[in-house]
Amino acid sequence: MNSSYFMNLEEKYGAHNYKPIPVVIERGERVWVWDVEGNRYLDMLSAYSALNHGHRHPKILKVLKDQLEKLTLTSRAFYNDLLGKFEQRLAEFAGYDKVLPMNTGAEAVESALKIARKWAYYKRGITMNQGNIIVVEGNFHGRTITIVSFSTEDQYKDGFGPFTPGFKVAPFGDARVIRDLIDDKTLGILVEPIQGEGGVRVPPEGYLKDLRAISSEHKILLMFDEIQTGLGRTGKMFAWQWEDAKPDVLILGKALGGGVYPVSAVLANDEIMDVLKPGDHGSTFGGNPLAAAVGIAAIDVLVEEKLDQRAKELGEYFLRQLRDIKSDYVKDVRGKGLLIGVEIKKEYGTARPFCEKLAKLGILCKETHDQVARFAPPLVIKKEEIDWALERIYKVLTEPIYNKGDAKKVV
Per UniProt, what is one Pfam family of this protein (predicted)? Predict the structure, then answer.
């Protein structure tokens, strides 16, 4: 069976809420994947940073297989022998008192919002059900009704109202506006340190530190969504470490599952997390023993293989080489660590055709916000593999194309 068969099958029976690059992946190992015809590709997306460790990391796979033979699920109605170990490992690794284990990133964000609101009403004395949280333009924190309620992307909200109130929106990267928006009902700030889905937007230097200072001054919670930027991706274990701007609430996911299982978590200190009482919140699968085993292994591999350091060194090299490419099509190249975006000028169409051309040359990446091709390979990538990719990226960014608007050849 060829790729067309599988794509047609999904087209017929699946909801049409994605538009994938037309490649049908069958197998993966480290930074490489193979399609059903046997063609090999370099994965430059890492499942939106869920594959920081690469595909099927042997240590993580062994832990997963061993745990599958013992125990997979108990629910939180009972204790299990691994959850406490995972919570201790993650809390000590990240520097917090408490961990709330969940499954997906969106679940973790929703959980953080609930914690922040309850903290504000029971610890800060804000009038019950009247608090507001400041978010920023271009944000992406998931797809639930509450989360899309404060999205600034029209498509994410189209047809899904009525929306959840209680949010104010500031421009991304401007701490002064956030300060001006704070009132006596503001309970927190929720921000991605770097916006991934928003177009790999890196804020100006000092922005995170300013948010930390503002939050401390006004005694509100600083919440960083590091689902994509965390766990080594930007060249530090957590992006907030670049400016020593430790948040009150840290939200993690994606790579916490080692690329093999969904694992997410909310982290905070006792004074914040203690607002949760039995019955306030829960998850049937959150904190299951399989997830706990995988989460511990994922952290261990990050530390043992110094994947944050690899991301820093190789990311600086990759970013520098991309910026050296002289291309009429490129408006900007930006990023931090191995989270990099190449923005295509609008007069040359969107980034989608560039991503499709790269796929034909053996590189898998994906457009975001129409104009940006995102390059975020597994952190285990080697320099020579980046060089292999750069040869093909150079070809695509410098060869003549046809402008989709008027079919005139662009040289």
Answer: Aminotran_3
